[in-house]
Amino acid sequence: MKTLLAVAASPRRNGNSETLLKEFARSAEDSGWTVDMLQVNDLKFRACQACDACAKDGKCILNDDMQDVYPRIINADALVIASPVTFGSMNAQLKMFIDRFQCWWNAKYNLEKPFVLEEENRQGFFICVGALKRKRYCENAEEIIKVYFHNINHKLAGSLFFRGYDEKGAILKDPDALAETYQAGKDFIAKIEVQ
Ligand SMILES: Cc1cc2nc3c(=O)[nH]c(=O)nc-3n(C[C@H](O)[C@H](O)[C@H](O)COP(=O)(O)O)c2cc1C
Hints:
This protein is α/β, with parallel strands linked by helices. The protein has helices at residues 16-30, 54-57, 66-75, 92-99, 102-110, 135-151, 175-193; strands at 3-8, 34-39, 78-86, 89-90, 122-130, 154-163.
């Protein structure tokens, strides 16, 4: 059975981005996949300290919850990340999470032993939700996701931006947004299954 790793970045449980993430993940479950939900805000971890110890073997020496995250990415078949916009980009929790993949950068570029091989053609998807209508904020977040996915050898199959949703539950009042996300999940999984 294939596994979709679903990364929720918001500290607001069952908020707008997590609701959409679950909708995306539900379509994977409906296609017979297992979903591994990862709540970034529940992880206890430090920011990358730029110690460069990972240049030696591609492993991070910080002994915290991120150590359980790396194998979850390796063992998954695809990845979807959902983030709220905060101050014009992805939230800090997610950025701090991404920076802890500096060890994967070293593994790929310095050691030429990436943890996920490019030939695997792993796919990823990004969902972004903001209160304001300004598209730039989600684009800023997506730019970071592109750098991240490139680093961990995932292809960005697609992104969905939802703007104009602020209070918790706002997205539930928009069945079209939920349906669009469910369909995007279906298409994402279908594309992987014909690979
Ligand atoms: C600290 C903080 C900063 C925010 N900054 C922005 C922002 O710069 N632009 C924006 O459109 N929305 C901003 N928002 C609003 C959230 O993006 C919005 O409420 C979103 O629906 C939250 O998603 P969630 O329910 O998944 O947490 C901010 C929210 C917080 C808590």
